[in-house]
TrEMBL record:
Keywords linked to the UniProt accession: Signal
Record-given protein name: Peptidoglycan DD-metalloendopeptidase family protein
Signal peptide positions on this chain: 1-25
Superkingdom of the source species: Bacteria
Occurrences of domain M23ase beta-sheet core (ranges): 54-142
Cited InterPro entries: Cell_wall_metabolism_enzyme, Dup_hybrid_motif, M23ase_b-sheet_dom
Pfam families attached to this UniProt entry: Peptidase_M23
Length: 253
């Protein structure tokens, strides 16, 4: 859409031979490292199974298609099919820990992609060994860990309690605006009320996007608008510093 993306893809070595853990493999893991990032809720839903000796993570059940978010900033080290999970994603966070997501029906991120805390990465499904739509979420002390630690204390140390509501905490930024006097409007319309005006480039967290009025600026045209919950309104994607007119990995409002 505009200029070069601010989020650069970070090269990451993928740990070879890492496979989804099977039931019965869990055991007490070393304490989580000190929180190195502000966490975000991975998914809304009901906790149907917690961490125990026969279960390496926590299961969060909800409807098929429920959004799944990255629990923190980091780099995607695995994204693809997997025995047992059907599909899975692993993210290595900036503090060295790893979170794992399984059973989704749609993955929205790829290996080596840099993600932010609270970024949409997948949609909930029931693929693999599953009796209904849910997210199987695990937390690991490192990429070499073979057994998951209890996700409850891990997330709690990062400001997230289970069950949780996405967006209820302080999600990290995933985009930055460009330009001055950028107007945040109550809806994706040029005649909607202005709720904020951004004086310069501003880091923002976009939770969804939708089609609205066509906006023209500096030779570009775009009818996509981003919703920024912290600012209480929408910004034309013309003013989001990303090369794509429709932002990748961001759901439709």
């Amino acid at each position: 859409m505009r200029t070069t993306p601010l989020r650069l893809l970070a090269a990451a070595a993928v740990a070879a031979g890492l496979l989804p853990l099977t039931a019965g493999a869990a055991e007490a893991a070393p304490p989580a490292k000190p929180a190195g990032y502000a966490g975000s809720c991975p998914a809304a839903g009901t906790i149907t199974q917690g961490w125990h000796s026969g279960h390496d993570g926590v299961d969060i059940a909800n409807n098929r298609g429920t959004p799944i978010y990255s629990a923190g900033p980091g780099t995607v080290i695995v994204s693809g099919p997997a025995s047992g999970y059907g599909q899975w994603i692993r993210i290595r966070h900036d503090d060295g820990t790893v979170t794992e997501y399984g059973h989704m029906y749609e993955r929205l991120v790829s290996v080596n992609q840099r993600v932010s805390s609270g970024q949409l990465i997948a949609r909930m499904g029931s693929e693999g060994q599953s009796t209904g739509p849910h997210l199987h979420f695990e937390a690991h002390s490192s990429t070499s860990s073979t057994r998951g630690m209890d996700p409850g204390p891990y997330l709690s140390a990062r400001g997230v309690g289970l069950p949780c509501t996405p967006g209820g905490g302080t999600p990290g930024t995933n985009f930055t605006t460009w330009g001055t006097s950028v107007r945040v409007r109550a809806d994706a319309r040029l005649n909607a009320a202005v709720v904020r005006t951004l004086s310069g480039p501003t880091p923002v967290h976009v939770d969804c996007q939708k089609r609205g009025d066509l906006v023209e600026a500096e030779g570009y045209k775009n009818d996509a608008w981003s919703h920024i919950p912290a600012l209480g309104g929408y910004v034309s994607n013309i003013y989001i510093d990303h090369p794509d007119a429709w932002l990748p990995g961001v759901r439709t409002c």
